[in-house]
Write a structure and sequence with these properties.
alpha+beta; two-stranded antiparallel ribbon; flat; about 400 residues; 2 domains
Length: about 400
């Protein structure tokens, strides 16, 4: 029987790096278990997984892509239609009108936020501002949705000609029945795939009536170190080559940056039923393909700032996958007491996770099938495999 939930646990060690910074430029932190830990936010992790384009990337899944941008309507509607020699002013007006209807009250809030951010006063005469193709906030749209809206805009502009008032009337007529409009968009792809793979996996919040909301099927925790934070201030200088050639021993630049090192516990959950539904609700093969790729991606794709000066690339020490029907639960609490960083940190971490799993099984019963891939030769966990074998095992838990 297919799993209801698949849980993926990882242990990944990064030496001198600055993986995820806060607004002051320091490594993100999180107090946990009486010690401050180094943290990588779930947003950072998901971003790197989404945009990764190498082997086993999500881009290789046979599904339409998702566009996350403030200028999605400008790039995918306005510019292509203007390139077809349609009048730019009419196209922009049509797109702005369509966007205001699609996003509903959200569009009004975005325009107000945009005016405030630009320091503009509201229109003193109470007149509506010309609609704009760009939005104040990032929108999450599937390529099928953008292609449908581009075709709709083309038809409206061709029917209206240069008559802007007629254009607004045509848009209102075409989009009056929002239920029909929503069904027209949905008919392009089964299930929620009109919103694209990214929205199907990581969700989409919308307030308008036309676009469909997608609840995330992939739940991602912030990764934090299993031990107390280890940090160092990196003092550095930049030499001015030309001045140095003239005999000046001074520096062209002096600064410092925080660097950290740490063994991070990572955790994500695949809501299998939610994933299957978001991907069309029929064949589970596509959901299995996603799960297989996720195992590879979470183990090998590194987040990281300061890539040029720290090369923050690492593969996971351990990938443990659990498949079952019980509600998921993190294993982060295995490290509620910080693991001692002296000596064999990895072995202590493996042991802490194994012992915590044994305690959970003793109290709640063993409700999951488990398999893992790891660098340690000791049999800490059951069913040891290569990463490729583990990815295929995970795919079968979802697809079969």
């Amino acid at each position: 029987m297919p799993a209801k939930f698949v849980q993926i646990h990882t242990l990944t060690n990064y030496p001198a790096s600055l993986l995820n910074r806060d607004d002051a430029g320091f490594a993100k932190r999180m107090p946990f278990g009486g010690a401050v830990r180094t943290r990588i936010s779930s947003q950072c992790l998901k971003r790197h997984w989404r945009v990764y384009t190498g082997e086993h990337s999500l881009a290789t899944v046979d599904a339409p892509s998702t566009v996350r941008s403030r200028v999605a309507f400008e790039r995918h509607l306005v510019q292509p239609l203007v390139a077809e020699n349609l009048p730019e002013g009419t196209v922009t007006a049509a797109v702005g009108k369509i966007v205001s209807i699609i996003l509903g009250s959200e569009a009004k809030q975005e325009k107000a936020a945009g005016r405030k951010a630009r320091g503009e006063a509201p229109n003193s005469q109470g007149q509506a501002e010309p609609p704009k193709a760009a939005t104040a906030q990032v929108t999450v749209l599937g390529m099928p949705e953008l292609e449908y809206l581009r075709g709709l805009t083309r038809e409206v502009v061709q029917a209206a000609g240069d008559d802007v008032q007629r254009l607004e009337q045509i848009v209102d007529e075409r989009m009056r029945d929002q239920r029909e409009l929503r069904e027209n968009i949905r008919a392009l792809m089964p299930g929620s795939l009109e919103a694209g793979l990214g929205a199907a996996l990581f969700g989409r919040m919308v307030t308008g009536d036309v676009l469909s909301r997608c609840d995330a099927a992939i739940h991602v925790a912030h990764a934090i170190t299993v031990h107390a934070q280890m940090t160092e201030s990196d003092y550095f200088t930049a030499i001015d080559d030309l001045v140095r050639e003239e005999g000046d021993q001074g520096s062209g630049h002096i600064n410092s940056a925080e660097l950290t090192s740490g063994l991070f516990y990572g955790y994500l959950v695949i809501d299998v039923d939610g994933l299957v539904a978001n991907l069309g609700g029929g064949d589970r093969t596509l959901a299995g393909d996603v799960a297989e790729r996720l195992v590879h991606i979470v183990a090998t794709v590194s987040p990281g700032a300061k890539k040029g000066s720290t090369a923050p690339y690492a593969y996971s020490h351990l990938v443990l996958v659990e498949s079952g029907k019980a509600q998921p639960r993190t294993l982060q609490n295995a490290f509620l007491d910080p693991v001692r960083a002296d000596g064999d940190l990895v072995a202590r971490t493996y042991s802490a996770m194994r012992d915590h799993l044994a305690d959970l099984d003793a109290m709640y019963g063993k409700n999951e099938m488990r398999a893992h891939a790891g660098l340690r030769s000791e049999p800490y966990f059951e069913q040891k495999m290569s990463l490729s074998e583990l990815a295929c095992w995970t795919m079968r838990q979802v697809a079969e």
